[in-house]
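QUALITY CONTROL LOG
STEP: pairwise intake check
CHECKER ROLE: data steward
CRITERIA: each record must contain a sequence immediately followed by its structure tokens, with no blank fields

ENTRY 1 OF 2
RESULT FIELD BELOW
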Amino acid sequence: MSLRITDSGAVAVRTPAPRDVWRELYDSDPHALRYHAPAWVDLLSAFGRYEDASRLYSLPDGRLAVLPMVRRRLLSGVVREASFPPAWGMGGLLASGGVRASDVAAVFADLASRRVARTSLRPNPMTGPVWEAARPPGVVAVPRLAHVLDLEGGFDHVWNKRFLGQARTAVRKAERSGLTVRCDTSGRLLPVFYELFDRSLDRWAATQHEPRALARWRGHRRDPLRKLQMMAEWLGEDCRVWIAWLDGRPAAGILVIQGPSANYTRGAMDKELAGPTRANYLLHRLAVEDACAAGCRYYHMGETGPSPALAQFKTRFGARPHPYAEYHIEALPLIALDRALRRSVKRVIGFKDVPTGPSPERSAPARSRHGSLGKLVRTPSARRSRR
């Protein structure tokens, strides 16, 4: 255990964080996400590229905080740490009773004092203002935007008071379009989702003037099928794959991770089928009802970026925008160098930065603890406990 002296007093730091304390903080933080659980770091470690670098902070006011984090050692000997790496969800702090600016300031001071090539932090968007208030000079901030739907009041309240009329109309159209929807918690539908993912990659490549082979290489490198399969294996019923079919052909799919809150983390579609049927609206409507039934506090709709169409799609469900930032503490200006290299490559291939994402466009069998795979008309109402 090390000791750091901050403006507000001494902060004791222990790494890796003890699992029993970590789980207690996970259960007590009102904004905790499934990504903040110890099992998520275990999943990254099992994937083979990362090791546990979590840090427990004993704060001057007697409270405790945990920073879930992983470390990667490159062949050159360079060490990078992240909470979390790209395409691995949102990290940031867990703290007794919620994160405060003084907690974040203590963490920034601790991380800045260490010899690590780059430390990256992507916090929960709902705590964005707290993080920005505590950011010290020299920490690189990359602006981001996410949308989050408040599930308080239950699904009937969310449907009637938070969903806008356009969303309810689109859902009703989808229900009349002949779609068949299944929710899978076993991982068996992931190959179907991945087929839709490849179609989405091809569509985005054409839109962005990117070679199709390059787009698929980047997409598969970021999200190989094995990664999604491991997520399903490790998370069990908390990893929920929703697929909509039209006349036996997959039209759209979403991947939702449940915990204290639900996280829509991946989406893909066949635009020719999903657009006219409004399949994405139906999938999210069912996933939101499912999250309410499971006792989730929020439904995170993920990164929105600069896309007005994607922002409009999410706000139609009642999701509110949450500006936040991703933070980097660097020994060398790696972020600036990375951006310059990317701009150069894009100019060479004629790449156009076009935001990508989903286009706005009856009795289910009971789920066993091993997962379900069947036609869904009404989502289950059983509440599951946090894991």
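ENTRY 2 OF 2
RESULT FIELD BELOW
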Amino acid sequence: MRLGSEQALQRLLHTWEGVVANRPDAAIGWAQEIFAAGTVLESETALTRAATNPASPGQSRTELMNSVFGGKVSGEVLDLLGGLARDSFKDSEDLVEAVSRAGVETLFMSAQYANRLHDVEEELYRASRVLSEQRELRRTLDDKSIDAGRRQGLARQVFGSWSPETVALLEHGVESDQQIIHQLRRWIGDAGRRSEHLVAIVTAAQPLEADQEERLTALLAKRYGKPVEIHVGVDPALIGGVRIAIGPDVIDGTLASRIKHVKSVFAD
């Protein structure tokens, strides 16, 4: 992927992670919708050319995505696809790759928020070992003359008891034109890079100022001993203060929780 396209993808993924942070339970379903859209874009070359045509205004490219995928994917995924079309991807191949990578990163986000990213990374490694040793299985999963649904079914039969994100990645991998073993090795690296930092979901009664976000980020990084990326959501029902969720840890300093505690004391 070209540098400009890579930069555009990273900008969009940063925004997208804020969306996923507020609905981590929906992330696996969203990833599957993204992969399905990517399959359409890869097969419809006229569509991808139109969606990356530099002579067409960004809003027109977004409207094109809306006309193709509206009603077929969730509103959140439709916004993501529209943003991908609106940004500066240099050609159709870059757009198709960006959509695939957005789906993969969505699954890693899901695993991280569920505190099982390490498990997914380990399972991807184990899958690569299994497929390296079981050549017949690897050849079958890579055989494009076999219906993709049948190959996905085989992947579920072999690996279906693993983490749902790992299973979804394997299903996507066997549908892709690339060899599954190469994709697994790349995803292991991607999962490892993501695990180098923590993600904090911060919910506040009102938006935080930039300096407040910076101070909070520094405090959390000091407490946990590694870089922390925060995503802030707003919930006026909290009245005041913030609630912070990092993996299994929840730090609730909201006024609403204190009021609830006081009420429970008097109720007792």
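INTAKE CHECK: passed for both entries
DESCRIPTIVE NOTE, ENTRY 2: The chain has a mean pLDDT of 87.
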